[in-house]
Amino acid sequence: ELVCEEAIIRTQNDGESLQVRQASDAGKRALDLIEVEPVVHWSGTVKKVEELVEAIRTGAPGVSNLRSTLIGTEIGFGLYESHLNGGIEVTPPVPNRDRFVSSW
Questions:
Q1: Strand partners, 84
Q2: Is 91 helix (H, G, I), strand (E, B) or coil?
Q3: 21, 14 contact by CB (below 8 A)
Q4: How many CA atoms lie within 13 A of 60 on its CB side?
Q5: What is the dihedral of CA 8, 86, 104, 40, to 10 degrees?
Q6: Is residue 1 within 8 Å of 10, Cβ to Cβ?
Q7: Residue 44: pLDDT band by 50, 70, 90 thresholds?
Q8: What average pLDDT is seen over the chain?
Q9: Which of 39, 46, 67, 97 is deepest in the core (most CB within 10 A)?
C-alpha cells in the first residue's frame, strides 16, 4: 500500500489486483474508491524491448526513462524505510541511503 497526499494505491496478491482510493470532497480522511482498469500481466523484458524499439523509431523518449527509474527507486526506498520504522510517513528523499535491500 502506497499512501500519497491525495490518494492511497494498493496492490494485492503480488500485483494480481490494484485498488485506488482518493480523498473525497468531505476531506482527506474520507476516501472514495476509484475505478481502475484490471491489472494486465505482461513480460517486463518484452515491454522494455517494445518501448526501446518505439523510442528509436519515433525519436521520442521511452516511458521507462531515467527520471521514472529514479522516482520508482525513491518510492521503493521510502516504502522500505517506512516498513522498518513501523509504517511511519516518510518524506522523500529518504535520508538513509545505506540500507541493504536483498533481492528476496
A1: none
A2: coil
A3: no
A4: 6
A5: -10
A6: yes
A7: confident
A8: 84
A9: 39
Distances, alpha carbon 87 to alpha carbons 9, 78, 84, in Å: 15, 10, 7
Which stretch of DSSP H or E encloses residue 56? helix 44-58
pLDDT-based confidence at residue 26 (cuts at 50, 70, 90): low
Q: If DSSP codes are grouped into helix, strand and coil, which group holds residue 20?
A: strand
What is the Cα–Cα distance from 76 to 96, expressed in whole angstroms?
13
Among candidate residues 77, 85, 99, the one with its CA nearest the CA of residue 2:
77
What single-letter DSSP state applies at residue 66?
Answer: H
Cell readout for 95 is 535520508
pLDDT tens track for 62-76 = 877 788 888 888 998
